[in-house]
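Reminder to self: tokens first, then the designed residues, so the page reads top to bottom the way the pipeline ran.
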């Protein structure tokens, strides 16, 4: 490596060394001072603690699949918010701007177009998010997407909107639309069909005698204080489908997310009937979270308090998938806007919507104000953060120690990984990092090198969105999309040899590696631990071969053989269901490649 490059790297890293020595709870990036440099691509990798795999993201109209070191394994000439499907295809918008586009395009592994869809209705405007689902009633794959729908002024006034609140000449409310592979709309749900109002007793949707908006958490107030109807009124930006529940979750950027019923409002072979049914009370919110002041069951933020509001400027709401730590809980990227904090920053929230005030899982949705709140006391006075109320349904929070090390005013994503880690994408800085569940240490960090001025190996202080990435996703090596395919390393996006820290380099300096892959045999600590009744066991195999995973009591009694089979090289995880075992201490033993490793686990019922 040329001397001048090493000098640049060393000078840049000196300014971040104090953060590195603190176990890096906060990623050591985010230079905000003029003249401070950002080194792009992979900057840190703890190969033992990271959930190693391949990361997919889009920038400037292209989608990239990169390995942990940043080498490009695949590239597609389509890139806004790409989704890698199980068959190896890429589904994305037809325009490289998530705020609005005409439709969708699906490319196969080789980049050939295999499906397109264009919104043909002049009063619908697709934007931000979509998801491919398997519709069990149709026995076919369909695509759900968000679209703003124009609502005429006369319809708004007839529904009970207060004329004093606005002109209502350009009102849009979000709709959730489902389209099949032939381009036929088979289901639709609209916010405008689920409104409530307390302004005019002669109009529809009135609260009724002796009632208030607070009696209707399952509907949205058309005369919401401080937020009159307008263009892109709620600005929903993410959508997810829970296959086992048959439900959809979507979020408003202003600070709420909503769960609605899909499967029980869907009539196979009857699109008109489905749309009509979804417009009835059967389509009202099953649950909502984030800002109870919007239905008069909580306080709004003030200059001295965030009140009962939990999230603001939110993105990427979704259920944690089955088999992953926290499965069934809901994750959301909490940008931290509209919370009136003295010093803003972003957070990742994990929510269990079934928790009551005792933090007991009831198995049914609990209205967040009923579940109650606790006071989060910020641990450091110099962060200039006031204590604030956090819902008892929030079971995990990530935030950086330094306010500005993790702050994305818009966009962003988060993803729970098989070993319990969480991959985070901070949109406005094009910054991806992976954090552990326990001590929230950083175990991998990457900066998008694709900027408004081209591809950069290093760049100086820039305004937000200079190298933005809306979302990033991690895929394991055994993902179905890669079955039967050979992933060959090409160059990194910049073409440079990766230069990144590893744990042993925190003091000694810089690692230069071109082809090193993790060679360490590892059994990770199960998550959660203690657990009840199930937990995820993650491990890494440097080479493929026979694998045995066994569970023992402290007396050495074998109680369960979880795995006894050949497995491929790479990261793996399995779910251990201990519902039939008594509470107590157990030991997990991994045997592979003539190596053995043991971890202690606690089952606490």
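Designed residues (605 positions):
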């Amino acid at each position: 490596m040329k001397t001048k490059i090493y000098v640049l790297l060393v000078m840049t890293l000196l300014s971040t060394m104090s953060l590195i020595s603190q176990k890096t709870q906060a990623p050591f990036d985010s230079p905000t001072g003029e003249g401070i440099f950002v080194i792009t691509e992979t900057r840190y990798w703890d190969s033992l603690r990271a959930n190693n795999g391949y990361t997919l993201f889009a920038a400037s109209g292209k989608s990239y699949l990169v390995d942990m070191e940043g080498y490009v394994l695949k590239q597609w000439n389509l890139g806004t918010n790409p989704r890698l499907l199980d068959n190896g295809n890429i589904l994305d918008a037809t325009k490289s701007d998530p705020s609005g586009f005409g439709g969708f395009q699906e490319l196969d592994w080789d980049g050939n177009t295999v499906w397109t869809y264009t919104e043909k209705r002049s009063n619908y405007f697709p934007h931000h998010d979509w998801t491919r689902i398997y519709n069990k009633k149709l026995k076919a794959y369909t695509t759900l997407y968000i679209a703003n729908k124009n609502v005429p002024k006369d319809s708004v006034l007839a529904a009970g909107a207060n004329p004093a609140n606005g002109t209502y000449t350009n009102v849009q409310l979000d709709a959730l639309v489902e389209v099949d592979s032939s381009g036929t709309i088979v289901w639709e749900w609209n916010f405008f069909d689920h409104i409530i109002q307390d302004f005019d007793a002669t109009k529809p949707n009135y609260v009724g005698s002796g009632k208030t908006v607070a009696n209707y958490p399952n509907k949205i107030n058309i005369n919401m204080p401080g937020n009159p109807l307008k263009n892109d009124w709620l600005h929903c930006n993410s959508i997810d489908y829970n296959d086992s529940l048959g439900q959809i979750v979507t979020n408003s950027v202003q600070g709420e997310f909503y769960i609605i019923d899909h499967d029980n409002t869907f009539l196979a072979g009857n699109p008109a009937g489905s749309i009509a049914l979804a417009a009835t009370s059967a389509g009202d919110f099953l649950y909502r979270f984030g800002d109870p002041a919007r239905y008069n069951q909580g306080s709004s933020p003030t200059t001295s308090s965030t009140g009962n509001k939990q999230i603001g400027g939110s993105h990427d709401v979704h259920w944690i998938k089955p088999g992953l730590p926290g499965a069934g809980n809901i994750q959301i990227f909490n940008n931290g806007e509209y919370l009136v904090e003295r010093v803003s920053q972003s957070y990742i929230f994990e929510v269990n919507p079934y928790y009551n005030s005792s933090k007991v899982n009831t198995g049914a949705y609990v209205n967040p104000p009923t579940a109650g709140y606790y006071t989060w006391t910020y641990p450091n006075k110099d962060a200039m953060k006031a204590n604030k109320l956090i819902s008892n349904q929030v079971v995990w929070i990530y935030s950086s120690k330094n306010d500005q090390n993790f702050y994305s005013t818009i966009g962003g994503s988060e993803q729970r990984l098989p070993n319990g880690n969480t991959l985070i994408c901070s949109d406005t800085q094009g910054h991806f990092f992976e954090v552990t569940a326990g001590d929230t240490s950083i175990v991998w960090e990457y900066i998008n090198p694709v900027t408004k001025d081209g591809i950069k190996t290093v760049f100086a202080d820039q305004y937000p969105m200079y190298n933005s990435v809306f979302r990033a996703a991690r895929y394991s090596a055994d993902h179905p999309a890669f079955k039967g395919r050979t992933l060959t390393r090409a160059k990194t996006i910049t073409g440079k040899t990766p230069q990144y820290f590893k744990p042993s380099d925190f003091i000694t300096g810089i690692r230069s590696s071109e082809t090193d892959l993790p060679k360490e045999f590892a059994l990770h600590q199960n998550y959660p631990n203690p657990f009840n009744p199930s937990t995820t066991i993650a491990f890494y195999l440097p080479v493929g071969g026979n694998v045995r995973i066994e569970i023992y009591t402290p007396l050495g009694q074998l109680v369960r053989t979880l795995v006894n089979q050949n497995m491929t090289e790479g990261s793996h995880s399995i779910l251990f269901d201990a519902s039939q075992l008594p509470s107590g201490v157990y030991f997990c033993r991994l045997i592979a490649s003539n190596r053995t490793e043991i971890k202690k686990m606690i089952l606490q019922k």
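The chain has six helices and 42 strands.
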